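Worked example 2:
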Amino acid sequence: MSTDKTPPNTTVGKTRFYQGEGMTQALFCIEPGIPCQHAREQASELIGVVRELTITGVMEDNPQLIWASHYLSALAKALMDDAELGMAH
């Protein structure tokens, strides 16, 4: 009986997030080695929070909530992008 298990695909750690024009230093990056499924689950959770923050920010005319949702959505996208790169390997 074979006990070989295929290791889960993991993030590759190549995705960076830059904010603003002319920025050359990343504000954050995804670490390599995170199981892709976990990264995707976390991205999904973040997208749910982004949705709530966006709705509340618009309804309450609160720009701080809108900006928070903007940054969280960038983090969710970075997680998804890096997970996709990991799935391709």
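The longest strand covers residues 16-17. The two ends are 27 Å apart (CA to CA).
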